[in-house]
Amino acid sequence: MNTVAKEVELPGAFILGAGAVSSKTVGMNAELMPLVVTEAEGKPAINASYFSSINPADGQCLQEKYSDRFSDCDFGLLANLYACEGKPGKVIEVKASRRTGGDSLVTCLRTTLEKNYSDKSLALGGTFVIQKGQAKIHIMPREFSACPLNSNEEVNQWLKHFTVSAPLICQSVLVSRDPGLDLRVEHTHCFSHHGEGGHYYIDTTPDTVEYLGYFLPAEFIYRVDRPKVTHVIGRD
C-alpha cells in the first residue's frame, strides 16, 4: 500500500478497497479488506485492515484484523484500491432498500453511470453498509489451485461460498466502463464486527435489504503492473 501511494503521487494516502492478502506475508491465500493510512514524512503507516480466510478447523469463514498479526501493509495477486487524502468533504450519499432487479447495488451504480455518461469512464470509491438482510460472498481457499482454472465455472467450484448477515461494512471500487486499461470494472469486499466477511456478490434478501453508502468520484485511474497476457475469467 505504501508503494502504491507513492506511485499515485499521494504519500500519506487513505486507501480502501478490495484485494487479496500477500501470501508471502500471511502464509496462505485470503480475502483482504484494506483500510490503510500510508506512511509519509517519517510517520509510519496505520493499518486497520481485515482479512478473511477459510477456517481449517470447520471450513467456515474466519475473519481477523490484519494488524493483529502482521505489521506491514502488503497485498498480493490483485487489488482494486481507492486512494484519497482522507479529509472531510462532500460525498455522494446512497440509500436503497428492497431490491427489485437481478443486479447488486454496486452493479446498479456502475451501469447507471455507464448509461448516463456513455462517452466517459467514471470511477467511484467508497463504503456502504448492508444494514438489514443477508448477502452472498466468497472466500478463496487457503491453498492456491494446483491446476489452472480455465473458466468461470471452474473458478466458482474452487471458491468457497457463504451467506452472511448484516450489518456488513462493504468497501467498493467501480468504473463505469473500461477505458482500455484491462480493468476489473467493479470489486467489493465486506467485513463485520461479528466475524463474517469476504468478496461481496449481492444480497440474498431482496425484500428486506437496506443499504446506506458514501462514495467519491476519482480524479485519476492508475493501472499498475498491467499483465501482457490477460483474460476475463473470474472477474465477477
UniProtKB/TrEMBL annotation:
GO CC annotation terms, alphabetical: nucleus
Q: Which residues form the DUF1907 domain?
A: 1-224
Q: Which UniProt keywords apply?
A: Hydrolase, Metal-binding, Nucleus, Zinc
Where is the protein situated, by its record's location annotation?
Answer: Nucleus
Q: Which SUPFAM superfamilies match?
A: AF0104/ALDC/Ptd012-like
Keyword Cytoplasm found:
no
Query: What's one Pfam family here?
Result: DUF1907
InterPro entries listed in its UniProt record: C11orf54_DUF1907
Q: Name one GO molecular function term.
A: hydrolase activity, acting on ester bonds
Q: Does the keyword Metal-binding apply?
A: yes
Where does the protein principally reside? nucleus
Under the subunit heading, UniProt states: Monomer.
PANTHER family xrefs: ESTER HYDROLASE C11ORF54, PTD012 PROTEIN
* Record-given protein name: DUF1907 domain-containing protein
